[in-house]
Write a structure and sequence with these properties.
The complex is a heterodimer of chains A (505) and B (348).
Chain A lengths: L5 H16 L3 H4 L4 H23 L2 H22 L3 H32 L4 H4 L10 H17 L8 H9 L12 H9 L6 H34 L6 H33 L16 H7 L2 H12 L9 H19 L3 H24 L10 H30 L3 H10 L13 H26 L2 H10 L13 H17 L13
Helix pairs in contact in A: 1-3, 3-8, 4-5, 4-7, 4-8, 5-7, 10-11, 10-20, 11-16, 13-14, 14-15, 15-16, 16-17, 18-19
Chain B lengths: L2 H30 L12 E6 L2 E6 L8 H6 L6 E7 L1 H4 L9 H8 L9 E5 L5 H6 L1 H8 L1 E10 L5 H8 L16 H8 L1 H6 L6 H11 L7 H22 L2 E7 L4 E3 L5 E3 L3 H13 L3 E4 L1 H11 L18 H28 L1
Parallel strand pairs in B: 3-4, 3-5, 5-6, 6-9
Antiparallel strand pairs in B: 1-2, 7-8
Helix pairs in contact in B: 4-14, 6-11, 7-10, 7-11, 11-12
The chains are: A mainly alpha (505), B alpha/beta (348).
Chain lengths: 505, 348
């Protein structure tokens, strides 16, 4: 049951309808508030398990087992007695589950390959990867660790913890939500409401547009070229590499928007997962804008515990590489993902060295018109360079094998033969993204122009910040535009075999 | 909905919603206005949503894509060669002077005895549909010399051939109009929806056939041979009655694929197409295979006959290179036949 399916439309209407009933007056009486809240959470939890079990009922077992482990471990940590043991159990057990389901066969085949052994002799498991396990395991770990760090209280309500891990809008592909962000929402009187619906539906449609109009159409081209790269001219292969970078962004951020929209419609907030990543000026900024919930998780629960940059330059680079290698491996049990992580890790290290070598320059010294003009050109070059490197990094991520990745990379430089047919949608969608980024930039500059010094400092810290173009659906003109827009999405949608790219992780 | 919206009440908002729908509908209808896809009051230009995007077509009085006839003002009920085929021949996707029928007209216009080629390409009409309406088409468009019949992909199944020979399943479809089921027709008659609604062609007929046919086992290979022979006999006898020579020209369409290293890979059942060809030729039908020409052009010039820059780049309908190649092969064959005719006339 993916978001862009009729089954999900029926499902969300049903869930929304049931939750809507809980908005009726008899349920809102103050003496019944606690019971109603429990009912709401129960309905959402049941819906989340139906959603999970829709793919395969056995997925619910893995989810429930992880929930039980995390629930008791967090309580154990909170009690203080043998808290270290409970903490270790709370971190290790979900990781073991992830390792078994996701990485066991990979390690067996890798060891067998390295030692030239027969894979059959070592034995592999015939298992399927439970839906969203990569995402909810990370949430589970962050919950136990945060309880230990005192950032969040351990909840004694099993339903709430279960809902935190299973909440269906984010189950398949995140975002990875921290307990401190989500659990307090369960304490509030949140439910479906008209205002939430108004915003949620618009954010959902925004994501749907990204997915079924943009990403899926780009995917059709990418699939063709990646399947037979040697048949195409270098320009076509290069365009396919760029197209994949765009496809992945529109696909995954589209999914994230839909998740945010669905959750909003139900009365809950999910953090934004993308913030115009392709306007990043360096690899470090990229990871603050791309898959924000994962990169912040890796930073908080892996990079910093490893020592971060507190233990010397060499160790900091080592920590960075380790974090990115494991981040790559998180995406899938394949050396290609490890290589992808290594490429990004290397880029981050290089950027770190470059930044340290350059030092902090005094902006007052660079205030001349020439310096400013140079600054603009340098910024654009930095954005372009970061994008090019990111797009190259996506090659092993998308290619079926290392050999195929190498073929695609080398094919980009073959300009004398191959089918020459440039896909027109890539420049169109790239322009669309560029225009959207420019609009966001202009809005940001306007905000900076009128901001107080404190606000300006804050704005400079966050940088250019994307936003959802929301309409006021109580106005006739806005409502007309919205309906027109929805019809256009239907009109321009691409219909084919189009699963969400990140659902496989 | 904002606080003011809630104050105004659900009723007020519903009225606004209704009006907004009507306004959006009008806006969409402005776009959909030109998308009049019925084939009735012709000739006219139309914008339509085809598999490879939105196109403007100039159709003739029979709602067929015959740019050459429109340009020259030739009557549409008389031609030398009738070209029957599917959407490949309908050629919505290429410029009007780049499709194979137009090219053939141009190539045969300046000679002692010029030939005119009339296109009867209709989306969703495959070999068996063509066979089912072959006689009607010969009556209607009156070719004098040849009937070129397009065949692509896999060889037809027994059930589809049976239906072509005894076309009960087709009876409820009017061959001279674009067919949509009544529900789809109602929906599409609403301006905005026309633009949004995907075209529902006689594909539903084909679905029924696929369901009926099932898998062809080794046991019914002989039955298939017999069915193909019956079909060929019917084509031949009808052709003889109307004094035309039938020529089937074949291309692999989606079964013409690329290998990982860029090699040309036909993935249709080659043996079955060979068997089909042998049966047709035994019954006197000329069979032309365009595959080798496609292969040669790809291997020598990296030109691929299918696909477009705005859709599947190597899959989909024949593109203008594909049309040119088809025209080349057909031209060669027709010149060869014409030379043979002249030779035999001279002998007589």
């Amino acid at each position: 049951m993916i978001f862009n399916s009729l089954a999900f439309a029926a499902f969300i209407l049903l869930v929304g309808g049931v939750l809507g009933i809980l908005n009726a007056k008899p349920f809102l009486k103050s003496e019944r508030a606690a019971t109603t809240a429990r009912l709401r959470h129960g309905v959402l939890l049941a819906a989340s398990y139906v959603f999970c079990g829709w793919f395969d009922w056995r997925f619910c077992l893995a989810l429930a087992a992880t929930t039980a482990v995390v629930y008791y471990c967090a309580l154990g940590v909170a009690r203080g007695k043998r808290s270290k043991l409970w903490l270790r159990l709370g971190v290790v057990l979900p990781l073991v589950a992830l390792a078994v389901f996701k990485y066991f066969n990979f390690f067996v085949t890798s060891v067998a390959s390295a030692l030239s052994l027969d894979v059959g002799a070592l034995g592999t498991l015939k298992i399927i990867l439970p839906l969203g396990i990569s995402f909810y395991v990370f949430q589970a770990i962050s919950y136990v660790v945060d309880v230990n760090r005192g950032k969040v209280e351990a909840s004694s309500d099993f339903v709430k913890v279960a809902l935190y891990l299973a909440f269906f809008p984010r189950l398949v592909s995140g975002p990875i939500v921290k307990a401190a962000y989500f659990l307090p929402q369960l304490e509030e009187n949140r439910n479906v409401g008209l205002k939430n619906l108004e915003i949620g539906v618009q954010i959902f449609m925004f994501g749907l547009f990204k997915k079924i109009v943009v990403a899926d159409r780009l995917g059709a081209f990418v699939d063709t070229v990646y399947a037979t790269p040697n048949a195409f001219h270098g320009a076509v292969v290069t365009l396919a590499v760029v197209s994949y970078a765009l496809q992945l962004y529109f696909d995954f951020s589209g999914y994230s928007d839909m998740a945010v929209g669905v959750a909003k419609g139900l009365g809950y907030d999910l953090p934004r997962n993308f913030n115009l990543p392709y306007i990043s000026r360096n690899p470090s900024e990229l990871w603050k804008r791309w898959h924000i919930s994962l990169s912040s998780w890796l930073m908080e629960y892996l990079y910093i515990p490893l020592g971060g940059n507190r233990k010397g330059k060499l160790r900091a680079h080592g920590n960075l590489m380790t974090t990115m290698l494991l981040g790559g491996l998180w995406h899938g049990a394949s050396w290609a993902f490890v290589a992808w992580g290594a490429m990004h890790g290397a880029a981050l290290c290089v950027h770190k060295v470059f930044k340290e070598a350059l030092g902090k320059r005094d902006p007052a010294k660079n205030s001349s018109a020439v310096s400013k003009a140079f600054g603009v050109v340098a910024t654009l070059a930095a954005i372009l360079g970061t994008f090019v490197w990111t797009a190259i990094c996506w090659i092993p991520f998308r290619a079926p094998t290392f050999a195929a990745a190498w073929d695609i990379f080398t094919r980009m430089f073959v300009w004398d033969n191959g089918i020459y047919r440039l896909y027109v949608w890539t420049p169109i969608y790239a322009t669309l993204l560029l225009v959207a980024s420019l609009v966001v930039y202009v809005v940001y500059r306007k905000r900076c122009a009128v901001a107080s010094p404190e606000e300006l400092e804050k704005l400079r810290k966050t940088g250019v910040d994307g936003f959802y173009p929301l309409l006021d659906l109580t106005k006739l003109s806005h409502l007309t535009i919205f309906i027109f827009w929805v019809a256009l999405i239907r009109g321009f949608a691409y219909f084919g075999d189009t699963a969400f790219v990140y659902a496989q992780f | 909905m904002s606080a003011e919206g809630r104050k105004e009440g659900a009723g007020g908002w519903c009225v606004k919603f209704l009006i907004a729908n009507i306004l959006a509908f009008i806006l969409l209808s402005c776009v959909g206005y030109f998308y009049r896809s019925g084939r009735g009051d012709l000739p006219y230009s139309r914008i339509c949503c085809s598999a490879e995007g939105y196109v403007v077509l100039n159709l003739d009085a029979n709602a067929l894509n015959n740019g050459y006839f429109l340009e020259t003002g030739l009557p549409t009920n008389s031609c030398d060669v009738l070209v029957m085929g599917s959407s490949h021949i309908e050629a919505q996707q290429v410029q009007k002077d780049k499709n194979c029928v137009y090219l053939l007209n141009r190539r045969f216009e300046n000679q002692d005895s010029p030939l005119t080629f009339y296109s009867c390409g209709i989306s969703g009409y495959f070999l068996t549909e063509i066979v089912a309406r072959y006689e009607v088409a010969l009556q209607e468009y009156g070719p004098k010399k040849y009937a070129l019949i397009e065949m692509f992909g896999m060889a037809p199944s027994i059930a589809s051939i049976e239906n072509a020979l005894s076309p009960k399943i087709y009876e409820r479809y009017d061959w001279r109009t674009e067919n949509v089921d009544s529900w789809g027709k109602t929906i599409r008659s609403l301006g905005a929806m026309r633009w949004m609604w995907p075209s529902r062609m006689p594909a539903n007929v084909n679905n029924e056939i696929v369901k009926k046919d099932g898998k062809i086992s080794r046991d019914n290979v002989n039955a298939w041979d017999t069915a193909v022979a019956d079909m060929a006999k019917k084509l031949m006898s009808t052709s003889e009655r109307y004094g035309v020579k039938p020529i089937i020209f074949y291309h692999g369409h989606k079964y013409t694929t690329l290998g990982y290293n860029g090699e040309f890979v036909p993935t249709w059942d080659v043996e079955k197409i060979k068997a089909f060809r042998a049966i047709c030729e035994r019954e006197g039908i000329i069979f032309v295979d365009v595959t080798e020409r496609f292969r040669k052009e790809y291997e020598e010039n990296n030109v691929w006959p299918y696909g477009f820059c705005n859709a599947g780049i190597v899959s989909g309908h024949l593109n203008r290179d594909g049309h040119r190649m088809v025209a080349d092969v057909l031209e060669e064959k027709i010149r060869e036949l014409e030379a043979e005719n002249k030779e035999s006339e001279a002998k007589q």
